[in-house]
Every structure is written in structure tokens, then in C-alpha cells.
Amino acid sequence: MGRLFWKILLTFWLTLVVAGGTAALAVWWHHRALQSVAEDVVIRPSSILSVQAAANTFRFGGADAVYNMLLEQSQEAPENLQVYAVDRNNKELLGREIPSVVLERIRNSIALNVTPPIARSATFQNQELIFFAPLSGQFPEFKKPNRLPPRYRDLTWPWYLSGLIVSFISSFLLAWHFSKPVRLLRKAFKSIAQGDLNTRISPEIGWRRDEIADLGNDFDHMASQLQTLMTSQRRLLHDVSHELRSPLARLQVSIGLARQQPEQTQATLDRIEHEAERLDKLVGEVLTLSRLEAGVAPSTDEYVDVLELLDTVVDDARFEASALNRSVVLHSSDDDNLIIPAHGELLYRALENVVRNAIHHTPPETTVTVTAYQNKVTNTLHITVDDQGSGVHPEDIELIFEPFQRSSKTGNVRQGYGLGLAIARRAIDSHGGSIQASNRPEGGLRISIELPLLVRQVSEQLEPK
Prior knowledge:
About 55% of the residues lie in helices and about 10% in strands. It has helices spanning about 5-30, 30-35, 45-75, 100-110, 150-155, 155-195, 200-205, 210-260, 265-295, 305-325, 345-360, 420-430; strands at about 85, 120-125, 125-130, 300-305, 325-330, 340, 365-375, 380-385, 435-440, 445-450.
């Protein structure tokens, strides 16, 4: 058991002991007045009732009535029902002797309003008498030092001992209840540190409904995120290695051909240059993706006119599309100045990747349609890129945004690396936007991009057609 367990245990136990001791002290203090006269008077219900009856007799009948009552009582009443009456001069009504110390304690108990009232003061026609049932009187039985048998007096210590035991057990259970999840978390962190990313603790503390259970759920979420990131890194390393093998193999083949066929050196060098460019492009895209996933994307400290940037992207894409017998058209609100805080080069690359991906997946002699419009309600800019290709299988919709992933429906339409849309998603996310893919009812794939605008624009909204 750890230090936290003992801290919780001792804290709860000492708190219970102190609380119990404080309550016991209050009770003891409350009965202190009773204890101060316990050696002088009889504290029993019958004696208290007898004292009350004598006081009422004097209050309503006077001294003669109470004298006759006490006289008759002294001769016939049992020992525990004897009542004494004392006046202001400390004289007992029947002439019985009472020590002055006893009278002083009895008068103090009346002044303190001790409950139950073991002594009473009554007045009749300016005459005051104090009534009580003495422990020491005319009968030898009253001279006993205590009225309770010893076997009852000796039973107080087991109650204290049982209270200590019960408080210790309850504190032990509370400490165990609070420290167990901490032990589980400590064990889980050790497992994570040793590389076991499958560690989860919610099944073990799922029955709780408190902040500790929330902490366990947060730990499981953290472990899941770590597992996802580690899996992505391993997959990325595997995919990069796989993608590098082909151009490297072609480079080796080209070098071998150059040695075997010196007369074709120029063609071989051109091939080597081409493969080197492909390798450089692949490495550049992998570096860009890794920076975006690591959250070290360039800061968005410049203001970019998105429509102007999109117009540049489309102009550059038209040149590539014309070589493939395809076309690209842009529909936008030309009179708007839609400004957003962004990193211009990164956003340009994201939009370019989406448009070029559409160009390579739309059939020849078809058009890629790019539409931009402002949503004044949400103050966001919406960009859609539609191609007229075969679309994507529904189960592959989200996969196309993962690195080195290609839809199984596209076949070998394009010899790419599968990094373009992955970079686009990370870049759009870094600008506080979102990107989604969906199949168009009339055929083809639609990529929808949403970006937050800097200020609310005043131009009219241009809806997509």
C-alpha cells in the first residue's frame, strides 16, 4: 500500500477520533454539574419525581403541608424516595443534619439549571425551600459511595475501544476506495511507459460515477490517441519505405544500363533526373505532412484574399488540365473580398492538391467545377470541387484523406503517392476549417471545404449550382 493510502487512512481516522473525542468532551462537560453532585444526591426517575412532588406540595400548600409529607415520607417511604427540604438559613425542615459542602454543591446545580433537575427551589409567601433526595441520610444504605454496581461502571472502556475499531475500519475502507484508482493509474502509466498501448483502466473503475472515473476515461482517451499516433507513424514509415523502393529500384536499373550501354548515357541521365525529382517531391510531401501532423505548421499571421488565391490555383490547374484534354471552371462572387488569416503558401498547396486530384480523376473531355461562396449566417467561405469521375466507394470516403491511401474504385488512374488529400486536410484543419468528401448523385466526387472568414462580408452570397 502506497503513501497516499496511509495519508488518507490517518486523515480520516484522526478526523473521526477527534470528532468523537470532541463530542464526548461536550457530553462530559454537560454532565459535569451532575457529576459534581452525584456523591450527594440520588439521580433516579423515582427520586426526581419525589423531589418534584414535594416542591409542588410546598408551592401550593405551604410549609405545614410539606412538613407533614416529609415526616410521613421519612417514616414510611423507601430509601430512594427520601426528600430533604432546606431553607435560606441552611436548616432542614425536619431538623436533619446536612453538610455545608453538600448544600453548596446543590445550590450551584440549581444555579446552573442542570438537566434533569435533581434539586428544585420552590417559594411560598416569601419563604424559599430547596428540595433534593440526598445520598447520605438517616438510612445506612444512603452512605454507599455509588448507586450503580461495579459491573456497570467497568463497561465504559469497551465502548471506547469498539469506537476506535469501527472508526479505523471505516477509515480503512474509505482510504482503500480512494487510493485504489490511483494505484490502477500508476500501474497503467507504467504499462504505457513500457510500450503496452493497449492498457485501459475504465473496465476496472467503470462502476464509479465521480471525478476519478472521469480521470480514468481521460487516461483511456489519451492511451487511444497515443496508440493511434504510434500506429500512424508505423504505417507512415512502412508506406514511405514502400514508396521509396520503386524510384530507387529504377535508379539502380538506370545506373546499370548506363554502365552497360554507354551510347545511351544521355537518355539514362534523363531517366535518373526524373526519378530524382520524384524522390525529391515524395520527401517534400512527407516532410510537409509530418510537420502538419506534429502541429508545427507555419503561423497564420498574414491576411489572404481567398478568391484571389483560388483564382491563381485554377489558372495553374487549367494549364495541366489542357494537356490531359480536360478543363477547369471557377464560379465565384467576383466582387467580394473574402479575407482570412492564413499561411498563403500552405493554403495554396492544399487547394492545389484538391483541384489537381479532381483533374486526374475526371474523364477526358469533361470539366472540373470549382465553386466558392460565402455563408453569411456562419460567416464562412465554402469551396466545392466537383469532378465527373466514378466517385469513391462509401467505405473509402474517409480513407482518401489518410496518407498513401487510394480508393479501390479509381484503379490506376493516377500514378501518385496518395499524400495530396492528406496534406490538404491537415492544412485546412490548421486554418480552423474543415474538409469533407461525398459522392455526387449525378456521378463523380465532391470535395467540400469550409474556412472561417476574418470579418463578416457585405457581398451577396453566391450559391453553388
